[in-house]
Amino acid sequence: MSRLKSHRIRIDRLVFGGVVFCAVLAICPLIGLIFDLFVNGYKQIHFDFFIQVNPTPEEARLFQSAGLLIPGGILNGITGSFSVVAIAVLIAAPLGILMALFMYDDHSSRFSNFFHCLIVSLMGIPAIIAGMIVYLWMVEPFHSFSALAGGVSLAIVMLPMIIYSTLDALNTLPANMKEEGAALGGTYTNVIFLIILPAAKDKIISGILVAASRAVGITSPLIITALGSSEVRWNVQEPVSTVSMLLWNFFNNPSMVDMVWTTALFLFLTVIVLNIIAKSIYHGQIHT
Amino acid sequence: MDKYILEIEKLSVSYKQGSYALKEISVSLEPNKVVSVIGLALAGKSTLLRSLNRLHEIYTGIRIEGRILFKGENIMNQPVIDIRKKIGMVFQNPNVFPNMSIYQNVLYGYRLNNISLSKAENDRIAEETLRETGLWDDVKDKLQSRPNILPHSLQQQICIARALALQPEILLMDNPTAQLQPAYINVVEDMIYRLRDKMTVIIATQNLSQAARISDYTLFLEDGELIEFGDTSQLFWSPADKRTERFIMSQS
Description:
Chain A is mostly helical and 288 residues long.
C-alpha cells in the first residue's frame, strides 16, 4: 500500500517538474531577447539619439571606421510614428466603437453575424495587403506617398482589433444597464453616450491602446504608403519615416548595426510601456 | 380627473410568432393604489410591466396588440420618453451606474432627459428622494462616492431613488426585493406603503405574503392569462377562481 503511494507521489513530482521545465523553456527566448536588446542596444543610448534625425550611411561609416559612436538619432522616426499612429487611431477608434455599438445592439440578426465573419477575416488579412490597398486607393491617384496614407493602412489593421476589444468591453456591462437608462426616459443616443460608453470607457480606451501598440511595430504597409523621410515632418500629406521603418533601413545597412539594436530596444520599450498603461487602465489602476 | 390612471384593453404580447407571453389582458387601475402582480415564473409578470412603459420597444421582433390608456390617452400616441418619465421602473437587479457618484446616480434621470436644474434644486431633489427611500442617513456623508462601495441592498435603493427622482405618476417594480437582505426588504416595503400618497405602484412579486402585506389590489397571472384581479384581501381569502385558490394554496 505504502509502496503504491510513494510511486504515485514520484509520478506526481515528475509531472510537476516537467511542467515547470517546459514553462522555463518557454520563457527562455523572451528573456534572451530582452537580454540581447539591452546588451547590444545600450551603447547608442545618448541624448542625441532622441533629438537628432537618422544619419546618412556615409556619416555612419566614417564615424564607425574612426571608432566613434554613430552620430544622429531617430527623431524623424519618433515623430513619424507618432503622426502615423495618431492618424490611424483617429480613423479607427470612432469607426470601431460605432461598429461595436451596432453589433452590441443587434447581436442576433443575420446582418450582424455577417459582420462578425467579415471582421474575423479582416483580422486575418496580412498588413502588407492593407498597405497595397491603400497604395491603390490613395498613393497612386494622388501621386504621392504620405503620412496620411500610412495612417489609413494602419487604421485598416487596427479596426478589427478595436471592434473586438470594444465589443468585449460592452459585453462586460450588466445586461440590463441599457434598459435601466431607457426606463429613465433616456433616448437611444443619450443612453449610449451618457450611460453605456462612460461605463465601458476604461476598457475601450485600454483596447485602443493595445491596438496602437501593435500598430507602432508594423512596418510593411508603411514602406509602400508612407515611404520614408530623413526629415522631421508634420505635414500629413508628405512622406514620413516611422521608428519601425528606420529599423528596417538600419538593418539593410552594414555600417549601422549598432543603431539597429538601440532602435529595436526603443521600439520594444515603447510597446511594453503602452501595454502596461493599457493594462492599468483596464484594471482601474489609472483613471481616464 | 379620470377614475382610472391606467386602463389596459385586450393587451397581448408575443416574443415569437404564434406563442403569446400575454393573452388579452384587460384591467383598469385606480390612482394612488399599490397593485401586486403575482404568478409563477414566466407567467408574464415582467412582460406586463414592460408593456406599460413601452420598454419592449428597445428590442426588435416583439409584437404588441391591444391598447393601454394612461389617464385616458393611448400611450402609443405619446412620445415614448414622456411615457417612461411618467411611468418609472425599478428592476430586479440593481444597476447603479458605476462611473458616477451616488449623487449623480440619483439625479441621472434629469441628465438623460436633457433637463438642467439649479444646484439648489438638484440638492433638494436628491435629499428628498433619498429620504423617501430611507437611504439618507446611510449615504448623506458619501454622496460624492461611487455607489459600488455600498452593499447590494443599498444599491437597489439607489436605483429606486433614481426612479423616484423624476417624480413619476406610476412606479413599476419588477420583483424589487428578490435580491435584498430581509432587513432591507422591510425598508422597501414600508416605502412602497407610503408611496401610495404620491403615485400608483405596480409591483410584480413572487412573494405572496409581500403582496398581501403591501398591496390594495392584486392581479393573478397564469401562463400569460389574467385569471383574477381584485381587492387583495378578497383575492387571498376568498378567491373567485379555482386556479387562484390552487395557486395561493400551493405557495403558502
